[in-house]
Predict the 3D structure of the following.
Amino acid sequence: MKSIWFKAVPFDKAQVTLALESGVDGLIVEAGHVDSVKQLGRVDVLALEDVERVTLADKGDEETATASLKAGRRVVLAEGWEIIPVENILAQAEGLGLEAASLDRARLAAGILERGVDWIVVTPEGTGDLKAIVAQVKLAQHPVDLATAKVTAIAAAGLGHRVCVDTMSVLKKGQGMLVGNSSAFTFLVHAETESNPYVAARPFRVNAGAVHAYAQMPGDRTAYLEELGSGREVLIVSADGAATLATVGRIKTEVRPMLSITAKVGDAEGTIFLQNAETIRLTRPGGEPVSVVSLKVGDEILCKVDQAGRHFGMRICEDIKEC
């Protein structure tokens, strides 16, 4: 996740308030305003004098920025930077920040060399884009390659502990979490965005599956559903592959009747255990949710196919088979 800062220089209380409400990670202000900003919210605050601002005009400026980063100083490149010099610095040192005066520039900063810079400083000119920058750059993750799978089997699976992941976000139609029996084959379990005559929609919730299941997490990691808890960030994926983050507010683990659902993509096959109830849904290509109660063999759903092999959630190269 990218660190997003706002440069409130010259100081403007309205802009500072907007930055705090937008969810920035920190603010840069003139030294005389540091204490007053800290009283407005729990957020990191740096004095302008604590940040080395470098304007890239020639090769010497690039070398200056690199040397300062290696010396442990906080360095931000002034707006007007170009990609090639930034790439050269990123190849040699960590901790670089870039000023950005718009959403487009922030997106560009976040994607240089595919990993982007460590922190982005939004200038006052970018105030109007600040909320969009936080939503699309700070929370955005690399897109996920989803595949169309065919359901091959559906069967009752007895009772089991299932996990509802209640997030602090309102999710939309087409969004959910990638969950499965194997880290190599996960299913896009749809959020409870739909209502029916008996149950109201709970768009903050993903009824994600059995406690033992893998969930795809941020940073190319996985976690067992049983491991999730309040305050942990989870990966939310849309039917088009766009990915973002949500923070867990609560986990509900209860014993419920379960279904086993199996699907295939080519020669790859995967299974998931989900609660046997109308409100639990998978996702069709195009983003339409489909209830596990009405799901049929031969139906198409969205899944993610990967290589098996995880150790404490991290990807490893190992000869492993998960069934």
